Amino acid sequence: MAIWNLGSINADFVYAVPHMPGPGETLAATGREIFLGGKGTNMSVAAARAAAVVHHIGAVGDDGEWAVDRLMEYGVDTRFIARVDEDTAQAVIAVDANGENMIILFPGANDAIPQAILQEAMAEAETGDWLLIQNETNLQRTAATLGKKMGLKVAYAAAPFDADRVKAVLPHLDLLVLNRVEADQLEFATGERPEALGVRDVIVTLGADGADWFGPEGKRHFDAIPVTPVDTTGAGDTFTGYVLAGLDRGQPMAQAINLAMRAAALMVTRHGTADVIPDLKDLEGFRP
């Protein structure tokens, strides 16, 4: 089987800062690094490093060939990444001494993915494959509707959170992944708790408190793996990519979540985004 990911592609400019800047504050960074990133890219790389076959559907500008090349190097199929007349998306990320982050996004080409490239990709998808979407691109509703009609299983990471976008795709979902804040926002928007949304499987990630899975047999909690974080950027995307890869390989949900928890825990001990996502071999030697 395979994972088809309609996902963002960013250049991530990561600045190390002593603390998060306040309004009007000028703050000197103590370091800067440039990484391949974007929620969609991170998920594609994570799933590929978890041994899934991953096809990325997206767009870059003329300045984005390096990102496509990097995705290909990481084992992701890049045939369905369009070149458009927009700059490749960028993210400016501040990471403080505790590993917490603040992110500013410029969407660029991520908001200009042509419908034709989505349709071209979906023409190669097979019944039972996974379609993964999130909120850093256009075409989520179109993709979810098309994927469901084709017999694909549809997964959705509801970030950055937008209540209207979430409600538009809810009827088509098989798996919904939210963090704690997004789950609260969605409950406020719909009046429904995760278990009452009508989605077969809902996962709410809780950071250092682990994750909750709301499935056909009710709620199950998974404890986080204790580590000392240095950068939490991309940890949730790593978790989602690993969960999807596990499910695509036929693992039960609990097994997929447990492996994803290990991957996310190792991820937060590293500085960076897609370029430093762990693979299965890394997890074999990971002793928190």
From TrEMBL:
Cofactor detail note: Requires a divalent cation, most likely magnesium in vivo, as an electrophilic catalyst to aid phosphoryl group transfer. It is the chelate of the metal and the nucleotide that is the actual substrate.
GO biological processes: D-ribose catabolic process
Notes on how activity is controlled: Activated by a monovalent cation that binds near, but not in, the active site. The most likely occupant of the site in vivo is potassium. Ion binding induces a conformational change that may alter substrate affinity.
Ligand binding (K(+)): 231, 233, 267, 270, 272
Cofactor: Mg(2+)
CDD domains: ribokinase
Entry protein name: Ribokinase
Family: Belongs to the carbohydrate kinase PfkB family. Ribokinase subfamily.
